[in-house]
Amino acid sequence: MDAHRNAGVAGLFACLAALAVSAPEAHAASVSWRAQEGACAEWAGPWTLTSQGGGRWSGRIDYRMTGGKCVRGDGQRFSADVELQIDGGRWRARRFNSSDHNDCRYRGEVVGGELHGTNSCDNGGSARVEIDMNSGLAPRR
């Protein structure tokens, strides 16, 4: 009897763990996560995404040049389409249709409720990016 009870408890924990991982995707058709990108996090704004299931997301990046430790902000705007894949503790993304005509690939690690990584762009350059998945920004309509 104890073996059956232990198996049932283990199964329950496995189901709860699966629900915890998929819950953000199941409860929101669209999310908006606050992001910062650049040599000194000088670009900031939302990644507004829709879950495609299986850790896949697609949507839009909308940044404004807010400035950072190494450069003054000038309010310039930037936008791009994005496809994101989160797989366990790793993530990768592809930025395309970029307003600056410089499409990029991202990769990094999931750290708590944040994505930390770097990008590599077609026209050269590399930058750091941090995305707060718990920022709770309301999607723009």
Please give a structural write-up.
This protein is an alpha+beta fold. The protein has one domain (29-137): Quinohemoprotein amine dehydrogenase alpha subunit, domain 2 (Lipocalin), CATH 2.40.128.120. 18% of the residues lie in helices and 54% in strands.
Task: Please render the helix and strand layout as text.
Layout: H1 2-27, E1 30-38, E2 43-53, E3 56-65, E4 77-87, E5 90-96, E6 104-111, E7 114-121, E8 126-137
Antiparallel strand pairs: 1-2, 1-8, 2-3, 3-4, 4-5, 5-6, 6-7, 7-8
Structural descriptors:
141 residues, alpha+beta, Lipocalin, 8-stranded antiparallel β-barrel, globular
Short description:
The protein has 141 residues and is an alpha+beta fold. It is 18% helix and 54% strand.
How does the major sheet shape up? 8 strands, antiparallel, barrel
Give the CATH topology.
Answer: Lipocalin
Straight-line N-to-C gap: 55 Å
**Globular, elongated, flat, extended or rod-shaped: what is the shape?**
globular
How is the largest sheet built, in terms of strand order? 1-2-3-4-5-6-7-8
Element order: H for helix, E for strand? HEEEEEEEE
In CATH, what is the class?
A: Mainly Beta
> CATH-wise, what's the superfamily?
Quinohemoprotein amine dehydrogenase alpha subunit, domain 2
Using only C-alpha atoms, the radius of gyration works out to 18 Å
Q: Helix tally? A: 1
